[in-house]
Amino acid sequence: MRIAMIGTRGVPARYGGFETAVEEIGSRLAAAGHEVRVYCRSAEERLAIYKEMRLVHLPAVRHKVLETLSHTAVSVGHLMGRRTDVALVFNAANAPLLPLIRAARIPVATHVDGLEWKRAKWNGLGQRYYLAAERLSVRWSDRIIADAQAIQDYYRERYGVPSVMIPYGAPIQERCDEGLLRGEGYEPGGFHLVVARFEPENHVDLIVEGYARSAARLPLVVVGSAPYAEEYSRRIARTADGDERIRLVGGVWNQDLLDAMYAGCATYLHGHSVGGTNPSLLRAMGAGAPVIAFDVVFNREVLGGSGVFFGDAETLAEAVENAEKQPDRERERGVAGRERARHEYTWDDVAARYERLCQDLRARTPR
Predict the structure, then answer these.
(1) Which stretches of the chain score pLDDT less than 70?
(2) Considering only CA atoms, which of 151, 138, 123, 181 is closest in space to residue 17?
(3) What positions does the domain Glycosyltransferase subfamily 4-like N-terminal occupy (predicted)?
(4) Which of 37, 66, 246, 296 could cross-link 61 (Cys pair, CB 3.0–4.6 Å)?
(5) Is 234 among the domain residues?
(6) 154 lies in a domain?
(7) pLDDT per residue as tens digits for the range 328-341
């Protein structure tokens, strides 16, 4: 099959969950003999081929509201002039462009992501747009892809439509590169970790506040930044100011180091609340990190019985203190999380499901 993957920043994956999914799924589909074309936003490194996928680099308007849709519009224009059997569109925000793909008689599935309209970065107009985009995705997609059971339930209950539930996968780490960690100044098992974009619904400010209130001895390492949320970033910095235990290290783009940090942390603190199956959470589970997560249905669905949950600064402070008091119990939780990831969230299985979905789309199996 000739498969196009549209709507993300592209590959190599250096930003978020969509990009990781495109790389992991697309490379496996390409290795299975399919022709995979990935549309990428213009970058300094313009590879023509990456992991057997064909890359198409096109421009985008650098603006938080217009960036995704502008790039997808140019990508769809390119797509319509190429022979394509199936289009996989990521992000419901791209829904207004689906009729053009349908007009070209290309079957299309839309990965709707989480409940984007709930994100605080969107004002009233942005929220209304994303709600409208949800409705248009339902109307104009041949298939809807949900990455969590709770998202599938939401689309069935709100719009009365079925969807295909395909989660993300989790890379499994059996060991930690302790030499790399120590070389960067981190003691294996000697720090708590946060990895997140600085957005209100990821609750980085709440995690930093809760940790600051705690009597924890091990430092808190916060990995992340905010391209469009300067005030929120300043709020986090103000909360951390004066507490020598809190280290705001910005982005970590060395994937080997980031993997070692996941595998070598005492706990991984996860604050995401409006997405579905979160890739950073799965990466932490696959690395055997004991997870303390914000208490929402998505995180409980993924973690099962391996998680500890918080809802405010006080409960997070208590959870961190308890983790330091009972390190053996935390290691057991980490092992349980890794085993859950190993059996429930594998990229090979995820890619196989996407392959079956594409085969159904090409055959025009009714939804």
Answers:
(1) 15, 43-44, 64-65, 114-123, 227-228, 365-367
(2) 151
(3) 16-169
(4) 66
(5) yes
(6) yes
(7) 999 999 999 999 99
